[in-house]
Design goal:
The protein has about 625 residues and is of the alpha+beta class. The chain is built from 20 helices and twelve strands.
Length: about 625
């Protein structure tokens, strides 16, 4: 239809859609801020970002179908098939939630159509028009990076940034944005843009954008930020040595040593690096704690870890409660705490009780159970440190009649002594009780008292009938660590669907929440492993259709570069920067998530892959 318009009308039409796209790109930080407000403050079931991007998705699909070439129209229609198939099967046939399924399908559809959209923008243009669009696209994304980074830096300076982690022993902020993972995926998908612009021409604004991007990535604290920091430091090396290419060898040697030392210092100082070290220590600590219930003294290994991670400084959980069902059907409460963690200075004279309140049936009176305290002085290594002076073992038996199935309960720890009479509320500790469960509650002290975080554990069935046993799937510990324990959700889903995995792999299982599969006490809504989740949700056929535009442009771009430059294009700083960003996108999509299934990142993934394709045709590099 576009070819039927006059040349003047075609130019007007292209200007409109170009400006609309560029404005939409620059508006993303503001859309994300409004999304954060609508979700966190207004508790809206549909975020503003979701509404805005849904409208934009309808717009670009409509333009592709109405004004795209015949081949592009066919590709667009074929790309809609996996989403239409899932909508018809899940919503119309199986009568699953219309709202939840449409919301998920909209998020998933944003990625392939954004890839096609930017491909459409570069098609059927004169060379000058393509070069101009290329430059405008880079500048728009760079402005978006600058705005996002400034928001994060201001929130860090003012101390108002949203913490990425609820665990006190890990640090990192996402500014005022909703999710640290979403922010990390945005930076991963746009990482190459500032360096490409600096390679084209160095200006003050471009330097500021590059520096602010680096600082914001530094503050995230996610594992992805480590890889991004390595790439940013590599880009910095490229820029510095490009500027010093005519300098003497001695000058270059000094620069090389200085940059290397600077890089080591930055990587050592990263919050993400400290988070990994603390997480390893914390995992070892919790592993040792699980062995302490029957011991009278803390082993030297645990003393060392406690000394290195004091609770007030890092928030390390030096208080733990474990609730498990016994063979008798009753529930056993066990755990430990350091007395002064509960404001106690004379723990031997304290009385402790566990208070349980039924949140489902408020008319039921709260019941308290005396906690048997076993205080043990740390005689192996006596220190004045209040968290190392005494160890208190907790033990209590709760009759099974106390818990009713599918009721929510709230827990309190009541401490009474000559110096304190206080009840510590365990926030967010609502448990859905089932016939057989195993819950770990990790508690962290703050100004308000004790906060809890669930650590669900899988229960080993006592049923010896092998016919009723689920398939047991185990992954290496290192893989679980790399996946930030997202493997638990994947294993949970696969164990629930062992017999239908063949059908699932071909046709897909649909939105994961439809299956009512639980990880711990919560229904699995997302694996947060985009590539694996796409295969499970849409099947291999749907996955291929959805990812085909992206893979086509990637392969075509690499083939174009190889045909002209052979493998030397890998040494080209432009190509290296954009290829490293695309490589990071694909790795994150497999191991981390929040990339291909995140609309806020999918927009920029579509732009980045088309930037590579344009560069492979020498668009935008000679201006």
């Amino acid at each position: 239809m576009l070819q039927r318009l006059t040349l003047s009308d075609q130019n007007k039409f292209r200007k409109i859609i170009d400006r609309t796209t560029l404005v939409f790109i620059v508006s993303q930080p503001f859309v994300n801020l409004l999304t954060s407000v609508s979700v966190r403050l207004l508790a809206s079931p549909v975020s503003i970002g979701m509404l805005v991007r849904a409208v934009y998705l309808v717009f670009i699909v409509g333009v592709l179908i109405l004004f795209g070439s015949r081949r592009l129209k066919i590709i667009t229609l074929v790309t809609t098939l996996p989403f239409l198939f899932r909508f018809v099967l899940d919503v119309l046939v199986r009568h699953e939630s219309f709202f939840e399924n449409v919301k998920y399908l909209t998020k998933a559809a944003f990625f392939p159509f954004c890839v096609l959209w930017f491909y459409f923008l570069f098609r059927n243009r004169k060379p000058d028009s393509r070069h101009k669009l290329f430059d405008q696209l880079l500048e728009s994304i760079n402005i978006t990076i600058l705005i996002t980074s400034i928001v994060i830096l201001i929130s860090a300076i003012t101390g108002t940034g949203i913490e990425n982690y609820s665990e006190g022993y890990r640090e990192g902020i996402s500014g005022w944005f909703l999710s640290g993972n979403e922010v990390a995926s945005f930076y991963a998908s746009t990482l190459a843009i500032p360096i490409i612009l600096l390679l084209k021409k160095i200006t003050v604004m471009r330097i500021i954008a590059f520096a602010s991007q680096a600082l914001a990535v530094f503050l995230l604290g996610t594992k992805t930020s480590i890889v991004m920091t390595v790439l940013i430091l590599t880009y910095l090396h490229i820029i510095v040595f490009r500027l010093a290419k005519n300098s003497r060898i001695s000058t270059k040697a000094v620069l090389a040593v200085g940059l290397f030392l600077f890089s080591v210092f930055v990587l050592y100082s990263l919050p993400a690096t400290n988070n990994i070290v603390r997480q390893i220590r914390h995992n070892r600590l919790m592993s040792e704690i699980n062995k302490l219930e029957s011991q009278e003294a803390i082993p030297s290994f645990l003393q060392k870890e406690i000394k290195n991670t004091p609770a007030d400084d890092t928030g390390t959980a030096l208080y733990s409660i474990h609730l498990s069902q016994q063979n008798t059907g009753d529930y056993r409460l066990s755990g430990y705490f350091y007395p002064q963690y509960l404001d106690l200075t004379t723990p031997k004279q304290a009385e402790m009780a566990l208070v349980i309140r039924d949140r489902t049936n408020h008319s039921v009176e709260s019941i308290g159970y005396t906690i048997k305290n076993t205080f043990n002085a740390n005689i192996n290594n006596p220190r004045s440190d209040k968290y190392n002076a005494y160890y208190a073992g907790i033990s209590a038996i709760i009759p099974s009649e106390q818990f009713e199935l599918n009721h929510q309960y709230k827990f309190y720890v009541k401490v009474k002594s000559s110096e304190i009479n206080r009840t510590y509320e365990i926030d967010e500790s609502r448990i859905f009780v089932t016939n057989n469960f195993d819950k770990g509650l990790k508690l962290i002290k703050n100004d308000a008292g004790i906060n809890v975080e669930f650590m669900p554990a899988r229960v080993k069935s006592d049923n010896k009938n092998t016919e009723n046993k689920k398939a047991q799937i185990k992954l290496p510990k290192w893989l679980g660590f790399l996946l930030s324990n997202r493997d638990g959700r994947l294993i949970g889903f696969l164990e629930e669907h062992p017999a239908s995995m063949g059908e699932t792999l071909i046709f897909g299982a649909g939105y994961l929440a439809n299956s009512d599969v639980k990880y711990g006490s919560r229904i699995i809504y997302s694996l947060e492993l985009d590539i694996i989740e796409s295969i499970i949700v849409f099947g291999i056929i749907g996955f291929i259709v959805i990812f085909l535009p992206f893979l086509y442009l990637l392969i075509r771009g690499l083939r174009n570069l190889y045909a002209v430059h052979r493998f030397s294009f890998l040494c080209n700083p432009y190509m290296f920067s954009v290829l490293s960003s695309i490589g990071l996108i694909m790795v994150c999509g497999f191991f981390v998530g929040h990339m291909f299934l995140s609309p806020s990142a999918a927009l920029f993934i579509g732009a980045t892959i088309n930037i590579l394709f344009a560069m492979s045709k020498n668009i935008g590099l000679n201006r």
